[in-house]
Amino acid sequence: MTPPLRGCGTALVTPFTADGALDEAALRRFVEWQVTEGIHFVVPCGSTGEAVTMTPDEQRRVVEITVDQVKGRVPVVAGAGSNDTKKAIAASRMMREAGATHLLHVSPMYNKPPQRGIIAHFKAIAAEAGLPIVVYNVPGRTGSNIEAKTTLTLAELPGIVAIKEASGNLAQVHEILLHRPAHFTVLSGDDSLALAMMAAGAEGVISVTSNATPRAMAQLCDRLAAHDLAGARALHLALLPWMEAAFCEPNPIPAKAACAMLGHMQNALRLPLVPLSADKESVVRGALAAAGTRT
User: Fold this and answer.
1) Residue 2: pLDDT band with limits 50, 70, 90
2) Considering its fold, how many domains does the chain have in total?
3) 251 domain-assigned
4) What is the band of 121 on the pLDDT scale with cuts at 50, 70, 90?
């Protein structure tokens, strides 16, 4: 049985070259840095990784490189989501072949199925995927919410092991935590809510900000797991300016800018995303300094 996901997982940004190609060398260095800094798992090919602008071959290559660089030290949770269930199943098989240990599947966006359609979507994927599935609820991107009752139904399906909850609705999160089966993991999808959710019983966070501050975010989770609320709170407050600055423009624009400032990659994004506006650069630099990094 696959061990449950716990702690901080980084929703990896994807390094590109100036001409928009995948920067494989930078990706290897970045993944290695994340692991050596103590991150608990990595999540390539999500929205933070600009997966929607990558071809399937590029997505597969990103996961292959990540798996090869990780060398079994931490789980690799590969994004495989689609609002076309058949495409989501095909992507799941591809990521399994690429060596992922888990799959991240976002709720179908744009076509906005009803709750019974969301259940049918995930049930079909779980029957074919062959890897443990993390459900991703992010209404701000998908246009629809996975209700707590629906999440609890999904939690009973074989193969569905966790949820990345980014609804921002703590009452909904609390209902899931209260009624979930013992094997089902709850992960925060909002950096700023990780402290509150873990204090209430969630097991971790899939983080954007840990692209630039993996050690601190991992330590925040470790302190909470050790019931050191005061220590976790201190880290949270130190990281809070960066947590806010990381979303001063749409994700992953600030996160990639931060990674470039830290020397991990070029600040290259694929359209329609564009680099961080000049007037926000000082905001990001200041927030990173407050979090203890040097740019």
Assistant:
1) confident
2) 1
3) no
4) very high
Active-site choice (110, 123, 164, 256): 164
Residue type, 160: I
Tokens of 84: 């076309």
Per-residue pLDDT for 203 more than 80? yes
Average pLDDT over every residue of 181-206? 97
- Active site includes 136? yes
**To the nearest 10°, the Cα dihedral for 225, 228, 234, 237?**
40
Tell me, yes or no, whether 201 lies in a domain: yes
pLDDT at residue 1 above 70? Answer: no
Residue 84 resides in a domain: yes
What is each CA distance from 180 to 44, 77, 150, 175, 233, in whole angstroms?
27, 21, 11, 8, 26
Question: How far is Cα of residue 252 from the mean position of the Cα atoms in its chain?
Answer: 11
Give domain status of residue 275, yes or no.
Answer: no
Is 123 annotated as catalytic? no
Residues 175-211 as b or e (16 or more Cβ within 10 Å = b): bbbeebeeebbbbbbbbbbbbebbeeebbbbbbbbbb
What's the pLDDT band for 261 if we cut at 50, 70, 90? very high
Query: Among residues 71, 110, 112, 136, which one is catalytic?
Result: 136
Instruction: Please tell me whether the overall predicted TM-score, pTM, comes out greater than 0.70 for this model.
Output: yes
Q: Which domain holds residue 65?
A: 7-228
**CATH code for position 140:** 3.20.20.70
